[in-house]
């Protein structure tokens, strides 16, 4: 019902003023009614107060009359001060009579008051006469005056009580009227208050519905718009006031914002999909149109700038780093293009340095220098690359020095093995001669035994053969002495072989240690190759982040990675060759150890041979003494011929045993010679491997001070490597890897 009431002629402010004026009028009417009721009650209270005054004055006048009566009675009793009491009571009566006279008396009350006043005057006159008569001693007159005064007193009290009763009746009537007026005023005030309350509620509801509903909808629309929702519906306002015009403006603003944001959504979607060629509607009023025109101009600048960037990226993709970028754009567009142009120039210079380094790696020229004073990751990559090349150059230089030392050590070992082989051959020849001499001696002793058998047949033949036996014994002694000399020489040669074998073992162990040092250096080179590979990986990641603009960078990164792989393959081959050298050196040490064992056994065998020669020499000496005795006493020869034969047989068996031991020594010497030959072959293979290693590393052109810098590199390890973390390239600190 309230929604149907419309006031289109007034705006919201006059409507609110009218509503508050109506409420104020209701409050004013309520106040007026209350004021009137209060005034009426006040008048009634005033009248009640007047009636009270009359009642009080009448009562006090009766009291004063009674006091005058008491003073008369006191005087009749002869009490002193009665006249003063009478005068005081008269003054009290006069006071209250004046109060009663000043009050508003009714006609009846006024008539009774006049009668009372005249009677009191007469009563006062009689009292004066009473006291005069009493003072004069005229008691009869005084008694007559007193009797008359008593009659007047009764009449006065009746009139006073009549006035008091009339005032009482008036008071009760006024109280009843006041109660009636108060009740009526209360009912009127309550009725008006309730009416004003209801009217205020009606006006409040009317105003609230006309204001709060559209305000709530506008608030919801504003909150939704703040949250990005422009589809909230707002009802049309029924009146053409401020709220109605606000509703209309909000609805029109929603339409314009939807249109503007629709265009902005189209632009943003096109920007998201990379479509920079688009038409923007700029026909909007006020700031909307200005914003859209700025947006259209901005997209135009963005399209032009992206055109420059795309052209630059195409040039980078095709490897063309010599390009010119039109950077005369306003604001950040020009800044970005300036930075892009500067970046491409820096990238071009950096790639030129990298190309120089990669060309040097490709041609194995490690002594090339290039500029590393570039900002950011460019300088980091170039410094890391230069550090890697420096370490690679130092390592290759160290490998060259070690290869030279290995070649020199191999030559010394080869010479030592040749000397050992020659000494072994000499020992073998000496042992062969010993064996041959023992065989000859055994044959001679066999002949001596045969001849000694013939001695028993004829003394003459023994005598004639004694000289031959003596000469044979002397030859045997001489051959035994020669055998002892050869055995002594063989012992010396074997001692020399043992010393040279120990030297060879030490040199081979030194060679093995050198090979381990080379292995450490190869590990260092492998670490550098891995770091170079990581550097190439970082460059590939940067190229991938740059997109098409980094394809040229990716090509160079792949080339660096390929060179790093070649270095890694070369170090792997060197490691294999070092492993072969170490294996050959181990076999050489084992062979030398076997040779030492065999030499020790040969030495023991020769010592046994020397002992046998001593026994042979002793036996031959004894045989010579026996033959001499036979020659001196032929007659005793027959008796001792059997002993001579036995001694010859013993010498023959000793000779056979000596020949067998010499054969064993000869076999051991031959085995030793074979072992020395095998060692010589291994040393030659080691020398060939060292020569191959020297040839491989000698192709590198290293920088000066290679050995010192290599030692520093082995001591300090790799200074820095590069790692990738979310696409950022950083110099590695503790998290890097280094090998020493």
From TrEMBL:
Membrane-spanning parts: 16-38, 189-208
InterPro entries registered for this protein in UniProt: HAMP_dom, MCPsignal_dom
Region (Disordered): 655-681, 695-740
Compositionally biased intervals (Polar residues): 669-681, 711-727
PROSITE patterns from the UniProt entry: CHEMOTAXIS_TRANSDUC_2 (PS50111), HAMP (PS50885)
Biological process terms in GO annotation: signal transduction
This protein's UniProt keywords: Coiled coil, Membrane, Transducer, Transmembrane, Transmembrane helix
Residue ranges occupied by any Methyl-accepting transducer domain in the UniProt entry: 416-652
Ranges where the HAMP domain occurs: 209-262
Any Pfam family hit: HAMP
Compositional bias segments (type: Basic and acidic residues): 700-710
One cellular component term from this protein's GO annotations in UniProt: membrane
Parts forming coiled coils: 406-433
Matches recorded under PANTHER family: LYSOZYME-LIKE PROTEIN-RELATED, METHYL-ACCEPTING CHEMOTAXIS PROTEIN MCPB
Family as reported in the entry's similarity comment: Belongs to the methyl-accepting chemotaxis (MCP) protein family.
Protein name (Swiss-Prot/TrEMBL): HAMP domain-containing protein
Lineage: Archaea, Methanobacteriati, Methanobacteriota, Stenosarchaea group, Halobacteria
